[in-house]
Amino acid sequence: xxxxxxxxxxxxxxxxxxxxxxxxxxxxxxxxxxxxxxxxxxxxxxxxxxxxxxxxxxxxxxxxxxxxxxxxxxxxxxxxxxxxxxxxxxxxxxxxxxxxxxxxxxxxxx
Length: 110
Description:
By secondary structure, this protein is an alpha+beta fold. It has one domain. Helices cover 34% and strands 11% of the residues. The chain is built from three helices and four strands; from the N terminus they run ββββααα. The protein has helices at residues 46-66, 72-82, 97-101, and strands spanning 20-21, 24-25, 31-34, 37-40. The strands form two sheets. A two-stranded antiparallel sheet has the order 1-2. It has a two-stranded antiparallel sheet with strand order 3-4. Helix 1 (46-66) runs antiparallel to helix 2. The longest helix is centred in the middle third of the chain and has 21 residues, at 46-66. The chain is elongated and about 60 Å long.
């Protein structure tokens, strides 16, 4: 991965020499996953936020499907325990407003 400079006055070449490891050519990528987080070459956290929002919807739908006959109090307790924990939210620093307030993918009813 190549990180582009934040200052336009600094130049980064468009092509790089071929890097090899055990006679295998290494490819340049725009983003990759490291320790469960998506690292992007533009220093934006939008991809990681979208990943976490999708996981939130998946966990919420799983709880609604498994515990659909439980009372509303039990559903709220499960939701607070398993779905509202954003452990990595403190790591998000550079993101767009649309990543946080985007339209929901799935509508969930309690």
